[in-house]
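Teaching note: in complex prediction, the entire set of molecules is handled at once rather than each chain in isolation. The prompt given to students was simply: 'Predict the structure of this complex.' The entities are:
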Amino acid sequence: MTALLQLAALCCVVAGLVAGGAVGLATRSLRAGLPVALDFWLAAGLLRLGADPGWTSLLATAAIVAVRRLVTWSLGTARTR
Amino acid sequence: MDALLSEDWLKQTVDLLVRLVELAGAVVIFVGAAVAFARFLVTAVRTRDAERFVPVRLNLGRFLALGLEFQLASDILRTAIAPTLREIGELAAIAAIRTALNYFLGREIKEERSELAKAAAAASGATSAAPPE
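The expected output is the structure of the full assembly:
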């Protein structure tokens, strides 16, 4: 099951790159593409945390959550400015 | 009766349940990601409006939150068979991360939904305010 979850996580990482790139290209803005890619990478982190619930994957997922919050917050403040 | 309710049997049963619930969470997350991926690509081909991607992100967020709920349930089940303090500590950290993430996801979903509702209200207001031709 661990190998399957790792494969699913890898698929989500690739999907994040492709979907984030596609949205960024379609809207001609990195602001729209980056949150999309981060959403998929978050899904990958959650799948990896299910496959191997150790400190390393836990720290990696926490880092993705922190970056995601930071990006969402900075994009929100840039939009309201 | 003793053999039926032995500690080993309980451990194996809870372990199986944990795996099942964890698998259900992973399936929900993966299916959500796959559906969102297809919808993102279709929307990217059809439109260049950034607002059109918000409902797709909202849907993906909902799937992630649901998958997280399953993973949290498996964490709770795991506490029944965690024998050492170190394992319980690790479990607590994972549960804390998942709970925090669930909270933030819920907040984001609420914010984006209210933004969508505001945009829809503004659009319908503009249509009703426009003079009839």
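Point out the following to students. Residues 19 and 74 of chain B are 8 Å apart (CA to CA). Chain B has a mean pLDDT of 81.
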